[in-house]
Amino acid sequence: MSKEVVRLEEEYIRFDIITAHPAMFESVFGISIIKRAIDKNACKIVMHNLYDYALDRYKHIDDTAFGGDAGMVIKCQPIFDCVEKLQAERDYDEIIYMAADGKPFDQGTANELSLFRNIIIICGHYKGIDQRVRDALVTREITIGDYVLSGGEIPAMAVVDSVVRLLPDVLGDVESALDDSYQDGLLEAPVYTKPADWRGMKVPEILTGGHHKKIKEWQDQQAIEKTARLRPDLLKKHHPELLK
């Protein structure tokens, strides 16, 4: 799904995260770049505890799977109730489910999501969520890799972090986001800091010469060589003309 969204200066991006374990997010969202973004009103993150939507006295949000498969599945009712409550309050650009079998998350997706205003993220847990939630509510399914985690909470943190750092005025140097690995389909060139000589290991001389054009040429070439060595799939996808 591709949407064109115009962001107004007074708007922030809002994430509503639906999870059975909201406490997992406290430390990650309470420090560093995400906290800075929240403090600057660049984003708002609201946690929704699925157990608050359980109807029975024992707070059950899951049940056994039809067909006899092992593991517990999060039921339709608590997720539908939570999502429908949120939809009654505002319009949402995306309802994302963090799914092991979703579409791989990449920088292009992060760039796209950073233009949206309201996003719901559903975190599965246990065996996952009832398929009817995915069929009726979810607009986008995302995975962060070809492996299985205990739940969608850690992937949700990764998505929020990668999106928030792209928002205006969140990073100290706006170019630091633009120059990140993957923004142009290439890995980032090696970076160095002082001292220029550490235990005989020296910073490439070109970086200390102050010739900005030559430095940029060196960085571009290093990025191509690094990507060819470590991630040739990226070159094939984004820069097939660079393949030898």
CATH topology value of the largest domain: Alpha/beta knot
The proportion of residues in beta strands is 15-25%
Give the full name of the CATH homologous superfamily of the largest domain: SPOUT methyltransferase, trefoil knot domain
Radius of gyration: 22 Å
Order of helices and strands: EHHEEEHEHEHEHHEEHH
Oligomer kind? single chain
The shape is: elongated
Structural notes for this entry:
The chain has 2 domains: 13-164, Alpha/beta knot (3-Layer(aba) Sandwich), CATH 3.40.1280.10; 184-242, Trp Operon Repressor, Chain A. It contains 9 helices and 9 strands. It has helices at residues 26-29, 32-39, 76-87, 107-113, 131-136, 153-164, 174-178, 212-230, 232-238, and strands at residues 13-19, 43-49, 62-64, 72-74, 94-104, 118-123, 140-143, 197-198, 201-202. Helix 8 (212-230) packs across helix 9.
